[in-house]
TrEMBL record:
Enzyme class: transferase
Entry's EC annotation: 2.1.2.11
Cofactor binding note from Swiss-Prot or TrEMBL: Binds 1 Mg(2+) ion per subunit.
Pathway named in the protein's UniProt entry: Cofactor biosynthesis; (R)-pantothenate biosynthesis; (R)-pantoate from 3-methyl-2-oxobutanoate: step 1/2
Annotated GO CC locations: cytoplasm
Binding site for Mg(2+): 45, 84, 116
Biological role stated in the UniProt entry: Catalyzes the reversible reaction in which hydroxymethyl group from 5,10-methylenetetrahydrofolate is transferred onto alpha-ketoisovalerate to form ketopantoate.
Name recorded for this polypeptide: 3-methyl-2-oxobutanoate hydroxymethyltransferase
UniProt organism field: Mariniradius saccharolyticus AK6
Upper classification of the organism: Bacteria, Pseudomonadati, Bacteroidota, Cytophagia, Cytophagales
Length: 265
């Protein structure tokens, strides 16, 4: 199998082939998604919500992200694996940013890191890139800044914030980022960004006029039924499938129909 690279992702943008991206946090899920043919797997800090049950992405640690990333990398043969650098491990200190990125790359075997923000984290982005580590940007609704925003509503609806977002996207491209995620912004602005920068722009709640799409795998599989924003398309209802399976098992145990003679030694 030919591995996906930043070069291949760039070519996909050039020829208009949309890039598919999903999150994964463990070996088994990563293996399924990779075998299905996904282009990019993101070990997102959404693991903080989906795996650990926290309300925000802020509590997850660098060590915990490396544990998830290491597990994912072991399950992947083809996809390009990107890992979120967690809150507090890169902002405002480019030396720490570089150290965090190097730890992720060295200990997990992942292929790139992702960081949230534009001009504010420029130094960190440049420093990581100078070490030869590919960096994916993330603009718009950046969940590590949730307490600054106060809500999870659509970002950059106003002129000033939209202009800053476009400037930040250009800056990230100039720095040398290989791609940018745009989260929960108007489709028209996302289109403008994707047409302005040459690098792939991957959207989540950013409309169709971008170079690819990303979703949290637990959301699109319907494992987590509580989170249903407008941008989420649910491709399965694994929660009900799993509940029925577990209830079937409980019933069989209680009724002594499991295990049968054939299932015994
Ligand atoms: O952590 C995450 O899952 C993400 C995606 C939503 C882009 O950053
Ligand atoms: Na994230």
């Amino acid at each position: 199998i030919k591995r996906i690279t930043t070069h291949i992702l760039q070519e996909m943008k050039m020829r208009g082939e949309k890039i598919s991206m999903l999150t994964a946090y463990d070996f088994s899920m990563a293996g399924i998604i990779d075998s299905a043919g996904i282009d990019i797997i993101l070990v997102g800090d959404s693991a903080s919500n989906v795996m650990a049950g926290h309300e925000t992405t802020l509590p997850i640690t660098l060590d915990q992200m490396i544990y998830h990333a290491t597990s994912v990398v072991r399950g992947v043969k083809r996809a390009f694996v990107v890992v979120d650098i967690p809150f507090g491990s890169y902002q405002g200190n480019s030396s720490e940013a570089l150290r965090s990125a190097i730890r992720i790359m060295k200990e997990s075997g992942a292929h790139a890191v992702k960081v949230e923000g534009g001009a504010e984290i420029r130094e960190s982005v440049v420093r990581i890139l100078s070490a030869g580590v590919p960096v994916m940007g993330h603009l718009g609704l950046t969940p590590q800044s949730i307490y600054k925003f106060g809500t999870y509503t659509v970002r950059a609806k106003e002129e000033a914030e939209a202009k800053k977002l476009l400037d930040d996207a250009k800056l990230l491209e100039e720095c040398g980022c290989f791609a940018i995620v745009l989260e929960k912004i108007p489709a028209a602005l996302a289109k403008q960004v994707a047409e302005t920068v040459q690098i792939p722009v991957i959207g989540i709640g950013a409309g169709p006029y971008v170079d690819g799409q990303v979703l949290v795998v637990h959301d699109m599989l319907g494992i987590n039924q509580e989170f249903k924003p407008r941008f989420l398309r649910q491709y399965a209802n694994l929660q009900s499938i799993m509940t029925e399976a577990v209830q079937g098992y409980i019933k069989d145990v209680k009724s002594k129909s499991f295990p049968s003679e054939k299932e015994s030694y």
